[in-house]
Specification:
The protein is an alpha+beta fold. The chain has 2 helices and 10 strands.
């Protein structure tokens, strides 16, 4: 990987620097390619156990690469869940994964999808934090690649 970093610095006409410069390049340029998105979702929702919610969620490509959603060999979906998608699989998914569509998403462009949230019947009353993340099926959740995941307070009444 050091050779790739040195080549990228040379191509950009900048010195390699030290650890902070390498880390910035690793996170912002080399990795995560197209795995950097901004997810705009509600910050708070209210529901009863067993209720089905429908929310609009916007995914904005914040990377410098086109997200290849038109590639038939790949499938990109939005998921909603409790727990974390950064280290492992989410604890509990709260609805079907919603396809982002079959249109490539160039840098800076966005797509809005309708996400269904099925509030579990056994969810006790109170506040629960739920999250939204994009997943490239059979490959990785975007949070595992460093993309931020928004939290939403689900107020269960």
């Amino acid at each position: 990987m050091a050779g790739l970093y040195e080549s990228a610095c040379a191509a950009a006409g900048r010195p390699t620097g030290g650890w902070p410069e390498f880390r910035r390049w690793l996170v912002e340029e080399y990795w995560p390619y197209y795995y950097r998105v901004e997810i705009v979702a509600p910050r708070e929702l209210t529901a009863r156990p067993g209720e089905r919610l429908t929310v609009e969620v916007t995914i904005l490509n914040r990377s410098g690469e086109t997200l290849p959603a038109a590639d038939a060999a790949r499938q990109f979906n939005l998921g909603v869940f409790t727990g974390s998608s950064a280290a492992d699989s989410p604890d509990r998914e709260l609805g079907p994964r919603t396809p982002l569509g079959r249109r490539d998403l160039p840098p800076g462009e966005s797509v809005t999808v309708t996400q269904i949230i099925n509030v579990p019947r056994d969810l006790p009353a109170g506040d629960v934090t739920i999250h939204f993340d994009v997943v490239e099926e059979r490959r990785t959740w975007f949070a595992r690649q460093g993309s931020p995941v928004p939290g939403c307070t689900l107020r269960v009444r």
